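Folding Task

Wanted — backbone structure
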Amino acid sequence: MTDPLNHSHYAATAHAWRPRAFDGDNCSCDVAVIGGGFTGLSAALACAERGFSVILIEREHIGFGASGRNGGQLIPGLRWTASELEEEFGRDRADALFDLCWRDNRVKARIEKHGLVCDLKAGHLEAAWTPKDFDAMRREADYLADRFSYRTDVVAKPDMGVHIASPLYHGGVHDPQGGHFHPLSYAIGLAQAAEAAGVRIWENERAYRITDDPEGPGVMTDRTHVGARFVIDATDSWIGQVEPDLGRYTVPIMNYNIATAPLANADDLLPSDAAVADSRFVLNYFRLSADKRLIFGGGERYSQTPPRDIAAFVRPFMAEVFPQIANAKIDYGWGGAVAVTMNRLPHIGRRGNVFFAHGFSGHGALVTTLAGELIAEAMAGTAERFDVLANLPSRPFPGGKWLRRPLATLGLLYYAMKDKLG
């Protein structure tokens, strides 16, 4: 389908990729994967490496969804802090979650293993919107150092100029284990590695139902039925179109990004070249591209209808942070849906031989690759690490088919208003 939201810097600069067509031959396999984003691609690749035959089915093209149009920020962890996880789940589960979601950087490992070229840079800064936020960040940094020997750099307000030329923030925490990258080039690199491992990729092929045959699950597409021993549903924001009951666990939130023209003063804006995300509920997040553009995400909309002019919608947020480039030329504006769960933790699990992973809640650039690889581990018979994420609590949004989204929107608007009131 034509997508008015994908006038993106990524689409214009990603590695060349020739669309892979439905081939119609031998529509059976060990593993059928639905979805050509980070989760589906990493799962398909990891399954093929374990000797499974794999078909990956993508309705549009590789990286079409959030995987190919996100802010490119690689933020270790989950939306909950490590101390919140320990308080809620206890020491042992917090240890297991920390080992997976903070220490085990599967994105970096894949990039190194396959020689993927995707503009990988080190360093992520969380910037404090209020003094109260900075106090909480400082306590968390102390907790990470004392509890896990995980070192981050606490940056006081007078020292923020090392990282960012903006007067807005009251300090922050720099994590050298985080970073940023070109997400669509990474997705295409994963797809190429998956094909080299034997995965068959079908693009522009809609999968609309998972079947429950006596000999194992399968997938109905517009042109065929794929018989498989296992199915992986990695459709994220579109999961309700394949499995309506799983669609109850998330709501889509629209996010928008812009990319300026290349800036002569780019290095003055972000001297350390770290990616930055601030601490507001409706956060700003930004970084420099390899060609010295500022890629800036700001604002959310709870309607599926995009703004008439994405650049005009995002520009005021950019100008608030960087008034020195308030009138900079904007070359690209794009957006897309982020699937958000009730508690902002991902919803991962299995039902028989059908695995699923969705609801990464805007914090998925690292954990999606991990989730795909853990699904492959579980499929191969080692489920201990998969179960760490699969046992995270989850519940559907209230309200049923018609009221779920309006009720969720009211809750999100409440927290957005708290941002504005300080």
Remarks:
- Residues 400-421 form the longest helix (22 residues).
